[in-house]
Write a structure and sequence with these properties.
Layout: E1 4-12, H1 19-28, E2 34-35, H2 38-43, E3 56-57, E4 59-60, H3 78-82, H4 86-101, E5 113-119, H5 137-146, H6 151-159, E6 165-167, H7 174-187, E7 193-200, E8 209-210, E9 238-246, H8 247-252, E10 259-268, H9 281-295, E11 304-306, H10 315-328, E12 337-340, H11 343-346, H12 353-367, E13 369-370, E14 390-392, E15 397-398, E16 407-413, E17 418-426, E18 446-452, H13 455-471, H14 477-486, E19 493-499, H15 502-509, E20 517-521, E21 530-533, H16 545-550, H17 552-569, H18 574-577, H19 584-590, H20 594-614, E22 621-624, H21 627-635, H22 641-656, E23 662-666, H23 670-673, E24 681-688, E25 691-696, H24 698-711, E26 715-717, H25 733-740, E27 752-753, H26 763-766
Parallel strand pairs: 5-6, 5-7, 11-12, 11-16, 12-14, 21-22, 22-27
Antiparallel strand pairs: 1-9, 1-10, 2-4, 3-8, 7-9, 10-17, 13-15, 16-17, 18-19, 19-20, 23-25, 23-26, 24-25
């Protein structure tokens, strides 16, 4: 069965404002639990009478910055943002970040992206029937800003995601259930990528809680999963989001893969347990066994379990018993599988708990490290670890490889009995698939792009990129350039730099006055692009040599054209354009001959155009001078490539047979030199108000040069062998007309300027052999 790749991560957790900080805290064994003083509690509205209650615990896992939200970035007005639950606000931000983390710009991504998520109880602006007037605009705005139903669809709307959008609710197992449903949606091809996760934020956060003997909350503000002193967990706050994609598609698209979901399962305990809120050995075991079966792996190949791990006297033994029952059906080995619980670090994140465990485990697989599970000293006496496959991992441990890929299981159990279990595997090695990186590693220079919605955001993005490059010197700069260009949104405030290596990029980014760093404000607009193709006289030996050596598309176009031209020219044009060092003087003379110069120019201009178009730079209009108009005509669809090359070759050959002549570029208007033109001279081109070209015989051009010198008018002899665009070309017209009549001519699909009329070519002109 197809596996699912995790290609994007994002999250906000107690003590960690991003995934990097979260992983660092896990590795360092940070317990991100805050102890509140009375001043903080009074400020949060806690009744002072609680302070003397011995069961009142002044602790909690606080998520910083829940009051902050970039409303303008997402197009929310201040009032709308104020009325929106922080769970919704932060989940929207994290969904955007997960897509960016995976390198996808929602403005340009054509894939159907689904959203599967859930949130905890809203206590920010709860809807009150006796206060909020049902039907009023204010109550409606309050409802959609705070009710769970609108969590997922708000993300789909704001980010223009068109896949299924479902809000899931199964209490504590919500976000892992959402992840499992997202996987099923991908496997059913309902979407091509899926955002999955959850949010759980209580406001105010600094309130503490009441411990009740036998309840789920800890009596001392610490979660001691699987320990003899375990008496409950603590309330945590956080948001976690993953971006999922079918593994085969992720490999084909060269996505970064954190880990692979091999199998997942969901079920419910039913009534076979002590009470509605109690866990069930059989229910959990069935979900675990089903996930392992769907993953098609042996239990003994799973060497880590991220448990639900609430640290309750009742729940911990049941969870280990369920896991042991499943593993014992396949193996008698003991002590080979580490277990841990992220709740010992950050408390219980309720609807976001499952995805948080998933993110922790995916990072562990990526880094090949198992973080410590905290507060474990002596095992719960109801758990027989010694005779089980499991042991509690209490220190940062290297995750050693075995004969199979590293694998892990993740459990998330909801009050009410909905269980979810996911089997995770380390990402496959993509060295073979990544040969020939999308960022084109062979380039000497890389273009790094940054854009933001405000000037201050652009400065922050600049600092962030410099810092990221410092922290990750192993990054391929070509891949960085590719992601910044393709996987990021395009906004008005823009900055670019060109560099050759990572250290140079860092130096430039940290020096805003560096001339290699260009900053610009660009109003959103659709600017048209014009391709301009020069005529004969612009050719030279080794035209585009570096492009030919480094750009596969350019090289392919040049090669295919030269193969098609060989029967007409009687030689391989590549040997003339890109000669051996010893042959350069001879080929330089050859390239001045019309019969080779014109095909050579066509080939290089055509290959350049194709290269730019492959980069997404396509023309809305074109103009070509003389031979250049044939390139424009081909790109506009007037003639096929084969026909265009044949005509260019015949045209050059026929012109070569004409009497030789010369061309002179004159820095004056056509009107100013009209009286200087004898009958052996012709106005070949009027290029600008004070720039024109004259053609004629050698003798006539020599005489004109003398006259221009006497008048103080500047001129320049062009590198041509003939007097093009003059009556000296007339003898070739009949033979060339016969060749053009053999060609199928079609109306242009891209407008271009006619050399004959100086304005847009018409369909009638383009399809008339006489025009050409």
């Amino acid at each position: 069965m197809e596996s699912i790749a995790i290609i994007g991560l994002s999250g906000r957790f107690p003590g960690a404002k991003n995934i990097a900080e979260f992983w660092q805290n896990l590795c360092e064994g940070v317990e991100a639990i805050s102890q509140f003083n009375e001043e903080e509690l009074i400020s949060a509205g806690v009744d002072k009478s609680l302070f003397n209650n011995p069961n009142y615990i002044k602790a909690g896992a606080v998520l910083e910055g829940v009051d902050l939200f970039d409303a303008g970035f997402f197009g929310l007005n201040p009032k709308e943002a104020e009325m929106t639950d922080p769970q919704h606000r932060l989940f929207l931000e994290c969904a955007w970040e997960a897509l960016e983390n995976a390198g996808y710009d929602v403005q340009r991504c054509e894939s159907r992206i689904g959203v599967y998520a859930g949130a905890s109880l809203n206590n920010y602006l709860p809807f009150k029937l006796n206060i909020d007037q049902i039907g009023s605009a204010n109550s409606f705005q309050k409802l959609i800003g705070n009710d769970k139903d609108f969590l997922s669809t708000r993300v789909s709307y704001k980010l223009n995601l068109t896949g299924p959008s479902l809000t899931i609710q199964t209490a504590c197992s919500t976000s892992l259930v959402a992840t499992t449903l997202a996987c099923q949606s991908l496997l059913n091809y309902q979407c091509d990528m899926a955002v999955a996760g959850g949010a759980s934020i209580r406001v105010p956060q600094k309130t503490g809680y009441l411990h009740q003997e036998g309840g789920i909350l800890s009596p001392d503000g610490h979660c001691r999963a699987f320990d003899a002193k375990a008496k409950g967990t603590i309330i945590g706050n956080g948001v976690g989001v993953v971006l999922l994609k079918r593994l085969s598609d992720a490999i084909a698209d060269r996505d970064h893969i954190y880990a692979v979901i091999k199998g997942s399962a969901i079920n419910n305990d039913g009534s076979g347990k002590v009470g509605y809120t109690a866990p069930s050995v059989n229910g959990q075991a069935e979900a675990i066994a089903e996930a392992i079966a769907l993953a098609n792996v042996a239990p003994e190949t799973i060497t880590y379990i991220e448990t639900h791990g609430t640290g309750t006297a009742l729940g911990d033994p049941i969870e280990i018993s369920a896991l042991t029952n499943v593993f014992r059906a396949e193996t008698e080995k003991t002590g080979f599988c580490a277990i841990g619980s992220v709740k010992t670090n950050i408390g219980h994140l309720d609807a976001a708990a499952g995805v948080t465990s998933l993110i922790k485990t995916a990072l562990a697989l990526q880094h090949k490290l198992i973080p410590p599970s905290l507060n474990f000293e002596e095992p719960n006496p109801e758990i027989d670890f010694a005779n089980s496959p499991f042991y509690v991992n209490t220190q940062l441990t290297q995750w050693n490889a075995t004969s199979t890929p590293r694998r892990a299981g993740i459990s998330s159990l909801g009050i009410g009995g909905t269980n979810a279990h996911v089997i995770l595997e380390e990402a496959p090695s993509l060295r073979e698939q990544r040969s020939g990186s999308a960022g084109e590693q062979g380039k000497n220079y890389q273009l790094l792009l940054l854009s933001a919605k405000t000037d201050s955001a652009l400065e922050t993005a600049t600092q962030n990129l410099a810092q990221h490059l410092k922290q990750h010197p192993e990054l391929n700069l070509a891949d960085v350039a590719y992601t910044l260009q393709v996987g990021r949104g395009v906004f008005n405030y823009r900055r670019i730099l060109i560099c050759q290596n990572t250290q140079e990029a860092i130096n430039i980014l940290e020096n805003p006055d560096n001339q290699q760093l260009l900053t610009h404000f660009e109003e959103p607009t659709q600017r048209s692009i014009t391709f301009m193709f020069p005529g004969q006289g612009a050719q030279y030996v080794e035209m585009g040599k570096e492009l030919y050596q480094t750009e596969p598309i350019f090289r392919e176009q040049v090669d295919s054209c030269c193969v098609l031209l060989k029967p007409y020219l009687g030689l391989d044009l590549r040997a003339v354009i890109y000669p051996q060092e010893s042959e350069k003087p001879a080929t330089s003379k050859q390239l001045k001959q019309t019969s080779l110069a014109q095909p050579a120019l066509f080939v290089i201009e055509y290959a350049l155009a194709r290269l730019r178009m492959s980069w997404g730079i396509s023309p809305q209009a074109m103009i070509g001078h003389s031979i250049g108009e044939y390139v424009a005509a081909y790109l506009a669809g007037v003639m096929s490539l084969e026909d265009a090359l044949a005509l260019v070759a015949v045209r050059g050959k026929l012109m070569q047979q004409m009497s030789p002549g010369a061309m002179l570029s004159v820095s004056a208007s056509a009107t100013a030199i009209k009286d200087l033109l004898s009958e052996n001279l012709a106005l070949a081109a009027s290029n600008a108000p004070s720039l024109c070209v004259v053609s004629g015989s050698y003798d006539a051009i020599d005489v004109l040069q003398q006259k221009l010198s006497a008048l103080g008018i500047e001129y320049r002899r062009l590198h041509t062998s003939h007097a093009f665009h003059s009556s000296m070309m007339a003898p070739m017209l009949e033979a060339f007309m016969a060749e053009v009549k053999k060609v199928k001519l079609s109306p242009p699909q891209i407008p271009f300027i006619s050399n004959v009329t100086g304005t847009w070519i018409t369909p009638e002109q383009a399809t008339d052999p006489a025009y050409w």
